[in-house]
Specification:
homodimer, alpha+beta, Arc Repressor Mutant, subunit A, Beta-Lactamase, five-stranded antiparallel sheet, 10 helices, elongated, DNA-binding, GAF-like_dom_sf (chains A, B), DNA-binding transcription factor activity (chains A, B), Tscrpt_reg_IclR_N (chains A, B)
Chain lengths: 250, 250
DNA sequence: GCATGCGTTCTCATGGGGCGAGAATACTCC
DNA sequence: GGAGTATTCTCGCCCCATGAGAACGCATGC
């Protein structure tokens, strides 16, 4: 499948170490079904490149500093710019709800900022860099609705549409109709399709050409939403508009 | 030098992308002096493994989500346990100074927690995962003094003793004498050897066998230190003692 | 001291597959 | 439609990754 098997293997080893936190050459070998000498070669190469460290005491391997550096570089590159962060934080304050900002990244959809607090915590699986389940999140719907039909098709093809709750939209045609509506309304709602008892809403952020480039979203316990729909939508539009203004300027 | 050149090359490409934030195949090729087709092969393998993404719009390559995952795993593995973090934070509050906690990690010396605030900010280059310049930091001196002579020798051999300020100790024999003193006093001072106008101090944290396993440290503007030396030392000893107690228990 | 076990490295013959020049293709922008 | 650029394909060469097996180093136990 992958052209160069060495590289694939190397990352398999690296990820095996990452997953277990701390492991031995033997464990990696039997887990990945690679002969021991080869595993040692790979591990040593990874150590030489500072992606692993070899703990001499007990002969275990763990992640090395370069792994963290990569993470930092990724974060630095992707973190939403300060005006966007501010708008997201104000949305959080205004609606008393955890707020999110997401963008396209190549073919992907990625969360690049979150604003929450102890009273209004983020949804558990959501974090900076989150890039799954677009079909079941409000910001995902916004960004899916901004794609061309074929982009969206290959996106859903590649990732599938996992069923996360009884309300998750699991059929492409249903989703497609739903996204048309999202697109015309300029707001996406997500009612317990991602997590039980949780509702999200999102609005698009556009650049100078009017193209959708991002999504601003909030999450709330479903019981708190009733009656506030209009207020949520107008706040989303308001702050998404702020973001769009920044996008047009920059 | 590295046995498997493929792996070395692959990481060279990955790091080139990380360093530039966003780059093209051609730039990588001429920067690393690797023929273009080979660069594309490596880039595509990295994309296939989710360590890079290929931005279709402008044909640039950037870091992929797996990079962030690695960073998270590293952080999760290394972050100091909660009692240690609390002790470090209390030291910060007590002395009104940014506080740090560092440990051994294989042959390395790594910062695994920092506690600071706007009034008492951390030293700029210091961050979670920092693992350089042990000869010029207080916590580094503590942990170097806890090594055997040959461990320390090979450590300094491998990393050298870069001169960071006019006061940086740059000779191994001088450092060695200094570390003997540190070891007997049970406190390390660092006076503007790492950053100008900045002074640090550290105390060892020991496990049940009395072996040094960590270092608790503070940094302050040098002008604020005068007259407080005794108070700083006793607070360091106090909270390092708390950490040691935790280490004996765990 | 000798035996045992485990982690790690070495040796070496084999052949899979990585390599890179060059060409071909797929784009985009005038 | 043509020039320029980004990306992939082709293909034969030969390098070097591979893995079985053995050897080494270093514990611990008897």
């Amino acid at each position: 499948m992958a052209t160069t098997s060495v590289i694939h293997r190397t990352f398999a080893v690296l990820e095996a170490v990452a997953a277990s936190g701390s492991t031995t050459a033997k464990e990696v070998a039997q887990q990945l079904e690679i002969p021991l000498p080869s595993v040692y070669r790979l591990l040593n190469d990874l150590v030489a490149n500072q992606y692993l460290v070899h703990l001499k005491d007990d002969g275990r391997f763990e992640l090395g500093p370069k792994c963290f550096d990569l993470g930092l570089s990724f974060r630095q590159r992707l973190l939403a710019p300060s005006p966007i962060r501010q708008a997201t934080a104000e949305l959080h304050r205004t609606l008393q709800a955890a707020s999110y900002f997401a963008v396209y990244r190549g073919a992907d959809i990625v969360l690049t900022y979150l604003s929450d607090c102890d009273q209004h915590p983020r949804l558990r699986p959501l974090r900076f860099g989150f890039h799954e389940a677009a079909h079941a999140t409000a910001f995902g719907k916004i960004l899916l609705s901004g794609m061309t039909a074929e982009q969206r098709g290959s996106y859903l093809e590649a990732r599938g549409m996992p069923i996360l709750t009884p309300h998750t939209i699991a059929r492409q045609d249903v989703l497609s109709d739903h996204l048309d509506e999202v697109s015309t309304r300029g707001i996406a709602w997500e009612h317990e399709e991602f997590l039980p008892r949780t509702t999200c809403a999102a609005a698009p952020v556009r650049n100078g050409s009017g193209m959708c480039v991002g999504a601003l979203a909030v999450s709330m316990p479903s019981r708190k939403v009733t009656g506030l729909e209009a207020r949520i939508e107008s706040a989303l539009r308001e702050y998404a508009g702020q973001c769009s203004r920044y996008m047009r300027a920059g």
